[in-house]
Design a protein that fits this description.
The protein has 381 residues and is α/β, with parallel strands linked by helices. It has one domain: TIM Barrel (Alpha-Beta Barrel), CATH 3.20.20.80. It has 13 helices and ten strands. The strands form two sheets. It has an eight-stranded parallel β-barrel with strand order 1-2-3-6-7-8-9-10, surrounded by five helices. The protein has a two-stranded antiparallel ribbon with strand order 4-5. Helix 3 packs parallel to helix 4 and helix 10 packs parallel to helix 13. The longest helix is centred in the N-terminal third of the chain and has 18 residues.
Length: 381
């Protein structure tokens, strides 16, 4: 081989080797999921994007917006002090600057109430309620006779999608998003016998029908559907139970929905390894921890191991990790500051968990790469 050709060969080989060992190659999706900030928290939240998310190599931000936006398509559903377009533009600009992909979320189907209180959709349109005969108690407790956790809207109501899809389009436009997260988790009420539209129908087919409808609406506008994966796992067969998987017959929907849906596979109490199941079923999947830092670190390590020991077809579907936060943005930022200051590190918090997850991810970068990540914190006990 001539010297010039040898130089080109070696340079190409080294570039390819480095690309295969890059952080993007080893962990393509490095995500963070949190409630959208309130209007008064936007500046502090964009500072968090600049000073923490970006330096910690986060490249995907799922924002649970729900009704925290000044909707014009259906202003009757907006929260009184929801985000304005100007507020959203600040968040979008910060994310664009650091190449963070934004995925807004509105809970669809399930999570239409919380214990004793209906969310805005059912409060405004009670006729959409899948279980109108289930009354909200004065004092909530779990378990209860009605198996009431969160209400659902009826997926077969002829008017519901006209309204919720208008919100979906508006929030995706505002956040300049090419993907949307529809929630679809913890759906305990679906296909109830007393429902005049859903009664007697197959719950898996009902759930799959709702997923397909949402996916097709998004696809028509060039957008991709993301969703939580718990309703697609058989809780009895796996032993995982009714929270992180399904005991009400929806699990068979996994074979009835399009394969281009991205699954957010959340497991908080154990690092259950169901991401491989979703990938082998043909879905792209991310693993989602919450507040158990030791488990979350294992979940990062598992995802790396799965990718390293899979065929290219499976590996390309195992996308990465999304840290979830289930408190408000303001509360998390205070918690996170305590964690960065090495306070409350013995506690199971999403702030501590995020530090550990991001530091484990930083280890995946090639040697010599400056990820700009802060120095390590003491391990969570």
């Amino acid at each position: 081989m001539k010297p010039a050709a040898l130089i080109i060969f070696l340079a190409t080989f080294l570039l390819n080797a480095r690309a295969e060992d890059s952080l993007d190659s080893r962990m393509p999706v490095r995500g963070f999921c949190i409630s959208a900030p309130s209007a008064r928290e936007v500046d502090k939240f964009t500072q968090f994007i600049e000073e923490d998310l970006a330096p910690r190599s986060i490249n995907t931000l799922i924002l649970r917006v729900d009704y925290n936006f000044q909707y014009t398509s259906h202003p009757e559903l907006k929260d009184p002090h929801g985000l304005t377009k100007t507020d959203v533009a600040k968040i979008v600009a910060a994310c664009r600057k650091h190449n963070l992909k934004i995925i807004p979320q509105i809970n669809l189907l399930g999570h239409q109430s919380w214990e004793k209180t209906p969310a805005n959709l059912l409060k405004t349109y009670p006729e959409f309620d899948e279980t109108p005969w289930v009354a909200f108690p004065e004092k909530y407790q779990w378990p209860n006779a009605e198996h009431l956790y969160c209400k659902s809207y009826c997926p077969l109501h002829p008017k519901v999608h006209e309204i919720v899809f208008a919100l979906v389009d508006e929030v995706c436009d505002a956040f300049e998003a090419d993907a949307f997260h529809a929630g679809l988790d913890e759906v305990f009420y679906i296909g109830e016998d007393k429902c005049p539209r859903c009664g007697g129908k197959d719950k898996a087919e009902l759930f799959a029908g709702e997923v397909r409808l949402i996916r097709e609406h998004l696809a028509a506008k060039g957008r991709k559907l993301w969703m939580w994966g718990d309703r697609l796992l058989d809780g009895k067969l796996t032993g995982i139970g009714e929270w992180e998987s399904s005991l009400n017959g929806t699990a068979r929907a996994i074979d009835l929905i399009p394969k281009d849906v991205v699954i957010c596979d959340w497991h908080y109490e154990r690092p259950d390894q169901t991401a491989v199941y979703f990938a082998m079923k043909g879905f792209s999947v991310v693993t989602c921890p919450w507040r158990n830092a030791p488990n979350a670190v294992k979940q990062v390590q598992d995802m790396v191991r799965f990718r390293e020991h899979s065929t290219p077809e499976i590996r390309n579907r195992l996308l990465g990790i999304v840290q979830t936060v289930w408190s408000g943005a303001g509360g998390f930022l205070k918690e996170y500051e305590r964690a960065k200051n090495h306070e409350d590190l013995e506690q199971q918090t999403s702030g501590n968990c995020f530090l550990q997850v991001s530091e484990e991810i930083a280890k995946l970068a090639p040697r010599g790469t400056d990820t700009n990540a802060p120095t390590s914190t003491p391990p969570v006990k």
